[in-house]
Structure formats: structure tokens, C-alpha cells
Design a protein that fits this description.
Blueprint: H1 2-25, H2 34-46, H3 66-71, H4 94-100, H5 122-133
Helix pairs in contact: 2-5
Length: 138
């Protein structure tokens, strides 16, 4: 009988160790980044119509993950001394200037974006500013 109790205790201890190991391996579900959840969809719905392949005006594609490569640390075609997105500095980023309509004041040209449509709501521009301020990460 003593042997059965020892076996039972060992089985219970082993089961407890397996449960702890399984719980330790469970990884928390990561929330999507601001870029993935808000910025990419915003660019696709408001900008990609005119900036689909990178061959259009401005020389950039604003579709999905491709957009970051055309934006972050890339010079603007209209004002080559100004980068489209300066990570950490929304006020120095040409995309913010174009969205807010202040680009002419900084040596840029052309129309406020989105072209031919109403300016983006302040809340959406604030999201773009926040993404840039946070480092413009994917």
C-alpha cells in the first residue's frame, strides 16, 4: 500500500510539473501594432487609390507593408530635403505636412492630401503623428 501512495504522489507531482511547464510555454497574444491595425488601413483607404504601384505621382506605393519602405527615411520628390517620414519627429515629416496642408510653408509643392478629397479628420492625422512619434515601426 505504501508503494501505491508513493506512486500516486509521484504521478501527481509529475502532472503538476507538466502543467507548470505548459503554462510557462504559453505566450501571450500580441496586439497588432499601430501600423498594422490603423496606419496601413488608413493609407490603403485614403491614399492607395493614387499611390498604388510607386509609378504614380509622388513615386510611392502606399499599399500595406510596402508603404513603410516608401515612407520611412525616404526623401520627398516634391521637397527632396524633407523626408516623407522622420521616425520620432512628426513635425519634420512631409507626410504630416501634406495631410495638414502646411507643406507649401516648408518648401513643398502640390495639393494637400488626399488629392481631390476632403482633408483627413483630425483624429486620423493624430494617429499618423502618433505612429511617427513612436518611431514609425511596422
Amino acid at each position: 500500500m505504501k508503494t501505491n501512495r508513493v506512486k500516486t504522489k509521484l504521478l501527481l507531482a509529475g502532472a503538476a510539473l507538466v502543467a507548470v511547464a505548459c503554462a510557462a510555454k504559453a505566450e501571450p497574444v500580441a496586439e497588432p501594432s499601430l501600423y498594422a491595425s490603423q496606419i496601413a488601413p488608413l493609407l490603403e483607404s485614403n491614399c492607395a487609390v493614387c499611390h498604388m504601384t510607386g509609378e504614380e505621382a509622388g513615386g510611392m506605393s502606399l499599399v500595406g507593408d510596402t508603404a513603410r519602405g516608401f515612407l520611412v527615411d525616404q526623401p520627398s520628390q516634391e521637397a527632396p530635403t524633407i523626408k516623407r517620414v522622420v521616425p520620432g519627429d512628426p513635425d519634420a515629416s512631409y507626410i504630416v505636412m501634406k495631410l495638414e496642408g502646411t507643406h507649401i510653408d516648408h518648401g513643398g509643392s502640390g495639393a494637400q492630401m488626399p488629392f481631390g478629397g476632403a482633408p483627413l479628420p483630425a483624429e486620423q492625422i493624430a494617429l499618423v503623428r502618433q505612429w511617427i512619434k513612436d518611431g514609425a515601426h511596422p
